[in-house]
Amino acid sequence: MVWRTALAVVLAAGGWCGASEVVTLGEDVRVEAVEAGVWLVVHRFAGGNNSLLVECGEGRFVWVDTPCTEEATGRVYAWLRGTFGEPNVIEINTGFHNDNLGGNGYLIGRGVVCYGSDVTPGLIERCWAETVRKVLPYFEGEANREYRDILVRQKLAAPNRLYPLAEGLVLKVGAETVEVYFPGATHTVDNVVVYFRGRRLLYGGCMVKALGARTPGFVGDADMAAWPVSVGKLLERYAEARVVVPGHGACGDLGLVRHTIEVCERYNRGER
Ligand SMILES: [Zn+2]
After folding, report:
1. How far is the CA of 99 from the centre of ligand 1 (A)?
2. For residue 223, how far is its CA from the centre of ligand 1 (angstroms)?
């Protein structure tokens, strides 16, 4: 497979999470070094969509979520391989939307194990086509034609290593303990968070909004009553968290979780 990859390394003037180095992979993918051994991958697919690569020691990597498409995921994988040699990667999907697992097909083809909850494959099967129908109005206009075409065509590959959603998952990867936790329904009924205990790094995914977000965004699959209650559980459980990564937009700290509760409660009061 040939990637038309324009590779450029530039210095960011104060990027997300204080990123100091940014690698661009084509026009729509950026890989930002957040801190030693942690990279935020941002795929521009209409908006910016985050996934996170974490080096866990012994040459092992955890990739939480994927870019929205297999093609973009392949470019990031090629960068990883070019930089670190044949990588030993596991993937963790935090929900059934394409911004969580649109790259699974590519990764599974590469022999990467993709962890996901036991309800996620059924949601892809039963709900994804309907989600696309609901989300298309957000992709209006000529500028978004490419994204609409991909959304309509795209076949999502389910995770191939399942765990019971309510129980979550704890993985030892290299020196790191990686916890997958489901606090209850939020932006979808299967969104989970991933906590890297050694790094005190919380990947909140789509249930956590960036400070720049004034609304909950796409709520077609959300449980709006439960969302603020569920996400609020993160404040106590991960009170030690140092960095919090949202599914879209800039990283921060637990202030993002408090902001998410406010945004959801405002929405629920009808202040839109
Ligand atoms: Zn999302």
Report:
1. 6
2. 14
